[in-house]
Amino acid sequence: xxxxxxxxxxxxxxxxxxxxxxxxxxxxxxxxxxxxxxxxxxxxxxxxxxxxxxxxxxxxxxxxxxxxxxxxxxxxxxxxxxxxxxxxxxxxxxxxxxxxxxxxxxxxxxxxxxxxxxxxxxxxxxxxxxxxxxxxxxxxxxxxxxxxxxxxxxxxxxxxxxxxxxxxxxxxxxxxxxxxxxxxxxxxxxxxxxxxxxxxxxxxxxxxxxxxxxxxxxxxxxxxx
Length: 225
Hints:
Blueprint: H1 4-28, H2 36-63, H3 69-89, H4 103-137, H5 156-163, H6 165-168, H7 172-175, H8 198-203
Helix pairs in contact: 1-2, 1-4, 2-3, 3-4, 4-5
Keywords: Membrane, Transmembrane, Transmembrane helix
């Protein structure tokens, strides 16, 4: 199975290539755009996307600077709405009247721009979603971790077991990561005192006054507090 860091680097490379091609085509066909505002938008967003993808790709290998998950997510999220706008407007992209010879070039621009926008949005949503799931499932400080660290800051087996416990129990590789359900109210944990009377009272629906709590102050388990 491909490592997450390799997959991310490959994805950043693809995003950088599509952005570079879109930027080049946008600059070349600038004067043939029917609406100059769209040309400005395409060139600006693709240029920023190229810079972001390239920096994310070479930051650690070339400069030994870790890439925090939060930094990667913020960079993606900032460009997300602009890629969404491009994806919505790209279908209306057309050349000026009388420049039908450039229709092929504009078609290529549409394809690469749309592909880059879709990949960017999928990557953004996927990274944020998996990081949000990692916080309660494994690591509350995942936003500060290096996104390319080894092992990966996103243990997929643990995240899958947290998000889909019923399915995870069916697979040997994820069964061990399924969290056990809480003990019923009438059962004590092994660390409880022998004369603990809290859980039995909870099972009967009776609130035990603080002065009667035998295990009060010992914090024998979360249910005793």
